[in-house]
Amino acid sequence: MSTISKTVILIITLLCSLTTYAQESLLNNLDNKNGFNNLKLKSTFNEVKKLVSLKKVNETKVKNGKMEYYSIKNANETYTFGSYKVKSISLGFFNSNELQINVLAFIEVNLADSRFLRDSDQLNEMLKKEYGLPTNSSSSDDSFELRQNQIAYTLDWQGEKVFLRMTRWSAPVNERFEFLGNTYRYYDIGILNFTNERANNGF
């Protein structure tokens, strides 16, 4: 192998290593933020209640515990996603029989701003700048399950501790003629893995 060939291979290897390092560094942002805005995953129910007013929506029994679901009152007046309006924020708290304490397992942010129809790609680019390229993606073109649920595509970012899924809906409005903005769901991976070991995990 010539010296030039070895040099080219070395440069390509170095560039690949730098790209991987940059991607991992950006994904660290997801773990460091550990949630959305001032809402931090694994916070206790009482800690979150000091920040926002909550309304209980539902609860589901799971093996070794239960999931409790809440919505944040007036979230549209308090929170934004970048420069976009938030329609609602839903929270899921996991209460294990062992801990006997509710901890925040996931945060779901729903956009109401009709500009997402025009700016969806810009929203995706905003996340890519913050967290790097998605670690996984799925499209309704390749998934019957997504088509069945009227989902156009999903983009996933998975760090060491936090998993983020962006869902883009196929239909721009629902039956009540409300805009269906993108949905962003932040999961605590430790709790997600723990509950995924059991049927009916509440997620």
In short:
The chain has helices spanning 3-33, 45-49, 75-78, 116-131, 144-148, 189-196, and strands spanning 35-36, 39-40, 54-62, 65-72, 80-81, 84-96, 102-111, 136-139, 151-158, 162-169, 183-188. With 203 residues, it is of the alpha+beta class. Residues 1-22 form the signal peptide.
What is the element string, with H for helices and E for strands? HEEHEEHEEEHEHEEEH
Terminal-residue CA separation: 54 Å
Q: Rg, please? A: 20 Å
What is the overall pLDDT average? 78
Quick one: overall form? globular
Separate helix tally: 6
The largest sheet, given as strand count, sense and whether it forms a barrel, is: 9 strands, antiparallel
Beta-sheet strand percentage? 35-45%
Extended strand count: 11
Portion of residues within helices? 25-40%
Content-based structural category: alpha+beta
What ranges have pLDDT less than 50 throughout 5 or more consecutive residues? 8-21
Overall tally of domains: 1
Describe the protein.
- With 203 residues, the protein is an alpha+beta fold.
- The protein has one domain (3-196).
- The protein has six helices and eleven strands.
- Strands 3, 4, 5, 6, 7, 8, 9, 10 and 11 form a nine-stranded antiparallel β-sheet that branches. A two-stranded antiparallel ribbon has the order 1-2.
- A hairpin with a 2-residue loop joins strand 5 (80-81) and strand 6.
- The longest helix is centred in the first third of the chain and has 31 residues, at 3-33.
- The radius of gyration is 20 Å and the shape is globular.
- The termini are far apart.
- Mean pLDDT is 78; it is low at 8-21.
